[in-house]
Design a protein that fits this description.
- The protein is of the alpha+beta class and 212 residues long.
- The chain has 2 domains: 1-48; 89-204, no CATH class.
- The chain is 58% helix and 8% strand.
- The protein has 8 helices and 4 strands.
- It has helices at residues 2-17, 24-49, 61-82, 109-112, 118-127, 146-161, 165-183, 196-204; strands at residues 89-90, 129-132, 138-145, 190-192.
- Helix 6 (146-161) crosses helix 7 (165-183) and helix 6 packs across helix 8.
């Protein structure tokens, strides 16, 4: 009994002394890893040896036709988006005479009569921008951007406040930006044309100024 136990201890000691990398399972795993690495290195060399931007993938005619159809659909969608003019505007100088073909500016009915507000009619006819519908037709919505508002303000300050030359320019440079920012509440760079009377009185610091 004692001899059997001693033999078992001796075998265990020998096994314990054997390094782990000598085990068969470890060696098999190392062999697999080497094979995989060799295959990967070979594939990399072959791939690098091919000319750039070439592929061995075959595309059948059906796939090509589907791709062409998708490209055509994208182009059609692009054309539709390009034909949307709803974010564009007509300038006052784009308008043509009644007998000519092109953009005809129609002044809003409540400003078009001789007895109506002459100042507002002038703003709509001479300075304001008119919005467009999606198809490019005028939509009757009149607004003023910074450039047209400054031009109108320059005229008003000249005719109603007697400013001209450098004095008018200095006045506009000083007070126009803050006035425009005050009325451009949405910060979209546009002010409704109907706000121009209040705008001009505010700019001139004269709430009783008569605008005709």
């Amino acid at each position: 009994m004692k001899s059997t136990f001693a033999v078992a201890l001796l075998i265990g000691a020998i096994s314990a002394a054997e390094p782990v990398w000598s085990l068969r399972s470890v060696n098999d795993h190392r062999t697999d890893s080497e094979v995989q690495k060799a295959y990967g290195d070979h594939s990399t060399v072959k791939a690098n040896g091919r000319p750039p931007y070439q592929s061995a993938v075959q595309v059948d005619s059906e796939s090509e036709s589907e791709s062409s159809s998708e490209e055509e659909n994208v182009q059609v969608m692009g054309d539709d988006s390009e034909s949307d003019h709803s974010k564009e505007f007509y300038n006052a100088w784009n308008a043509v005479k009644d007998e000519e073909e092109g953009y005809h500016r129609a002044i809003p009915a409540y400003f078009s009569g001789d007895s109506d507000d002459l100042f507002m009619r002038s703003m709509c006819k001479t300075y304001a921008l008119e919005g467009k519908n999606k198809d490019g037709s005028p939509n009757g919505n009149f607004v003023m951007d910074e450039a047209t508002t400054r031009a109108a303000a320059s005229e008003v300050l000249g005719t109603h406040k007697g400013l001209s030359g450098d004095a008018k320019k200095k006045y506009l440079d000083t007070y126009f930006p803050r006035t425009f920012a005050h009325f451009d509440v949405t910060k979209g760079g546009k002010i409704e044309v109907v706000k121009m009377p209040q705008f001009m009185r505010f700019l001139a610091s004269d709430q009783y100024m008569t605008l005709i």
